[in-house]
């Protein structure tokens, strides 16, 4: 059983946008969330990508932080957290909120991140949730910086071993309308 449930017709899985419309950190957060929750192969892909870009030790630490964040969300959520399976181009409400939380926390917007955290989980775990989201988001930003010049499609360059796909490299290209705006509102 995965930490989070695939779509089943709940309000948290309502499609609220497209992957291609998400800013880089939010996009990477959703892609890593989906891959990590898809089981062994997805989890291995997340680990391989993080270690290829961040190095083995830092990649392992980042993966542990991602696992802790997802476990906290799953165990302390206000309701069951819903996600779409890898490969879907639509973004669900819970996924969009998760991506926004990680991105906001990584920007050190702590007060706003706390507001987002209480939408996902109980108030008593909001601070640890924000701290974990911040660490994950900063790791995603480091991946973007360390992988070299950012690609037009994701804001990240391909740092995966030659010949391998890479979660970030295979992400959809952003739409021109979303790429030009810095709004952080949920759709």
Euclidean distance between termini CA atoms: 30 Å
Low-confidence stretches: 149-164, 176-187
Q: Please tell me what the overall shape is.
A: globular
Report the helical percentage: 40-55%
Category by helix and strand content? mainly alpha
Number of beta-strand segments: 4
Cross-sheet strand order for the largest sheet: 1-3
Provide the succession of SSEs. Answer: EEHHHEEHHHH
How big is the Rg? 15 Å
Output the number of helix runs.
7
Instruction: Please give the largest β-sheet.
Output: 2 strands, parallel
What amount of the residues lies in strands?
Answer: 5-15%
Mean pLDDT level? 80
Describe this structure in words.
The protein has 187 residues and is mainly alpha-helical. The protein has seven helices and four strands, in the order E-E-H-H-H-E-E-H-H-H-H. It has a two-stranded parallel ribbon. A two-stranded antiparallel sheet has the order 2-4. Helix 4 (93-106) packs across helix 6 (126-146) and helix 5 crosses helix 6 (126-146). The protein is globular, with a radius of gyration of 15 Å. It starts with a strand and ends in an 8-residue tail after the last helix. Residues 149-164 and 176-187 have low confidence and may be disordered.
Write the layout of secondary structure elements.
Elements: E1 5-6, E2 15-18, H1 24-37, H2 40-54, H3 56-76, E3 82-83, E4 90-92, H4 93-106, H5 110-120, H6 126-146, H7 176-179
Parallel strand pairs: 1-3
Antiparallel strand pairs: 2-4
Helix pairs in contact: 1-2, 1-4, 2-3, 3-6, 4-5, 4-6, 5-6
């Amino acid at each position: 059983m995965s930490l989070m449930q695939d779509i089943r017709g709940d309000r948290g899985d309502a499609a609220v946008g497209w992957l291609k419309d998400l800013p880089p950190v939010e996009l990477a957060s959703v892609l890593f969330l989906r891959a990590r929750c898809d089981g062994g192969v997805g989890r291995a892909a997340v680990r391989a990508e993080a270690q290829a870009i961040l190095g083995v030790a830092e990649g392992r630490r980042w993966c542990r932080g991602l696992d802790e964040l997802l476990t906290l969300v799953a165990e302390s959520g206000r309701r069951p957290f819903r996600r779409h399976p890898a490969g879907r181009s639509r973004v669900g409400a819970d996924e969009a909120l998760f991506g926004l939380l990680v991105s906001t926390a990584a920007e050190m917007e702590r007060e706003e991140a706390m507001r987002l955290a209480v939408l996902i989980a109980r108030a008593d775990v909001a601070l640890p949730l924000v701290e974990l989201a911040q660490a994950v988001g900063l790791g995603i930003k480091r991946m973007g910086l360390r992988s070299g010049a950012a690609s037009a499609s994701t804001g990240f360059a391909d740092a995966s071993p030659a010949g391998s796909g890479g979660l970030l490299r295979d992400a959809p290209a952003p739409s021109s309308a979303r790429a030009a705006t810095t709004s952080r509102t949920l759709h």
